[in-house]
Amino acid sequence: QIILWGRTEKCLKETAEEIKMMGTECHYFICDVGNREEVYQQAKAVREKVVICIFAQVGDITILVNNAAVVHGKSLMDSDDDALLKSQHINTLGQFWTTKAFLPRMLELQHGHIVCLNSVLALSAIPGAIDYCTSKASSFAFMESLTLGLLDCPGVNATTVLPFHTSTEMFQGMRIRFPNLFPPLKPETVARRTVDAVQMNQAFLLLPWTMRVLVILKSILPQAALEEIHKFSGSYTCMNTFKGRT
Questions:
Q1: What positions carry a catalytic annotation?
Q2: One GO BP annotation here (predicted)?
Q3: Phi, psi (5° rounding) for residue 174?
């Protein structure tokens, strides 16, 4: 079974219908993951209302996918304070609340997986998305700490996915200098590779593999050299045409 959480019922309903058409049972609950009380309340509702039909028992969440995120897409001085808080609450703190809500039962069952859809911007920030980059870096540290903490917990694992720019409405309008050299990822590709990583209990996944070069360069090159690379690639100005959706 699949259970969806989100803030917009229209999107949840449409997605749930698509999943059901593929022959998979799906339920949805309206929930703002940035709201701690709402997360705990809806987690309780899931445990009480969602039934695993085979066993006629109340179901337990055994795979938690933290995918919710927003981006304000402005510089620090141009950003609204409430918008900055919203990014941190949803992108980072939301994972604290959802994980605290469902991880205890996974540990009890010795069966579970925490999945985080992060971003390569957690490792290499860009101007014009200071809220998003900060929240994703915090999210990465959260997952890194959580993954290490689960090493002594049999049957429970964690996977963090760090994709390059993905062709969704979220970062619509963002432009890099060499799109043919660094094309945006398709959502289907990210989804498929995420499933593969979960099945293999892979802790961290960078997409595409060329992003590993970025990590290596950041560890060995001086800051001045990194700045020139970013300027040449266009990452310093890629958010100038941003028209995404928060």
A1: 132
A2: regulation of retinoic acid receptor signaling pathway
A3: -65, 130
